[in-house]
């Protein structure tokens, strides 16, 4: 694997600097944050732990909400790729592949079904709920890409197929980082102390 790009290091902490991240191969210094493209979430700040309601630790967990500013002029489509960058000895684990988003300022609401989604590491097209062992911190990198042509990729495509279809067509990109430390699962039971 190649080294982690310097231009990306300012937004990704050392523990999550996996050279296999999609943005490490698809992005470059001139497209990173180009035109002011930035991804945020109303549910967490960059570097802040994900709430368990977006993980396998809660029964009714859903994908977190995401928002992004306007991409560079001429952008036709936006793509979101979420990867677990914790284990540098193997490829990042794919948690979400989303495309079909209009090339403009926009958002995905909490739990919203995206226009098109590809296969995550579990082989389905949903938000793969983070599920680290209790006490283990894992590192999730939310990546957004703007392209200068629309994708013709069908839903259910693989990460490799998605990356191949946008390579060379990225007009702008950004990342949003969030860790999550494994906790005991919420069993839904009430503790008597909850009512004191």
Structural class based on helices, strands and sheet pairing: mainly beta
Could you say what the CATH topology is called? Answer: Phosphatidylethanolamine-binding Protein
Trace the largest sheet across and list its strands. 6-4-3-7-8
Give the overall average pLDDT: 93
End-to-end gap: 55 Å
Order of helices and strands: HHEEEEEEEHE
Number of folding domains?
1
Cα shape: globular
Relative helix content: under 10%
Strand content: 25-35%
Major β-sheet, in short?
5 strands, antiparallel
Give me the number of helical elements.
Answer: 3
CATH superfamily: PEBP-like
* Quantity of strands, as a count: 8
Return residue spans where pLDDT drops below 50 for at least 5 consecutive residues. Answer: none
What can you see in these coordinates?
By secondary structure, the chain is mainly beta. A 5-stranded antiparallel sheet has the order 6-4-3-7-8. A hairpin with an 8-residue loop joins β3 and β4. It is globular, with a radius of gyration of 17 Å.
Supply the key terms:
196 residues, mainly beta, Phosphatidylethanolamine-binding Protein
Short description:
By secondary structure, the protein is mainly β. The chain is built from three helices and eight strands; from the N terminus they run H-H-E-E-E-E-E-E-E-H-E.
Strand-helix topology:
Layout: H1 6-9, H2 22-26, E1 39-40, E2 66-68, E3 77-84, E4 93-102, E5 106-108, E6 116-117, E7 137-147, H3 159-166, E8 170-181
Antiparallel strand pairs: 1-2, 2-5, 3-4, 3-7, 4-6, 7-8
């Amino acid at each position: 694997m190649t080294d982690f790009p310097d231009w990306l290091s300012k937004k990704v902490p050392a523990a999550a600097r996996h050279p296999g991240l999609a943005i490490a191969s698809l992005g470059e210094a001139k497209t990173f944050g180009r035109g002011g493209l930035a991804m945020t979430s109303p549910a967490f700040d960059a570097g802040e732990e994900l709430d368990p309601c977006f993980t396998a630790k809660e029964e009714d967990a859903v994908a977190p909400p995401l928002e992004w500013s306007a991409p560079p002029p001429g952008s036709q489509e936006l793509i979101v790729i979420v990867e677990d960058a914790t284990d540098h000895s193997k490829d990042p684990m794919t948690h979400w592949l989303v495309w079909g988003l209009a090339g403009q300022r926009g958002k995905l609401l909490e739990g919203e079904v995206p226009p098109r989604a590809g296969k995550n590491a579990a082989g389905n097209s949903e938000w793969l709920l983070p599920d680290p062992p209790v006490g283990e911190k894992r590192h999730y990198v939310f990546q957004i890409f703007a392209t200068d042509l629309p994708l013709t990729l069908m839903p259910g495509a693989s990460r490799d197929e998605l990356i191949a279809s946008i390579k060379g067509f990225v007009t702008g990109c950004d990342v949003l980082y969030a860790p999550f430390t494994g906790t005991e699962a919420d069993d839904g039971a009430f503790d008597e102390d909850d009512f004191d």
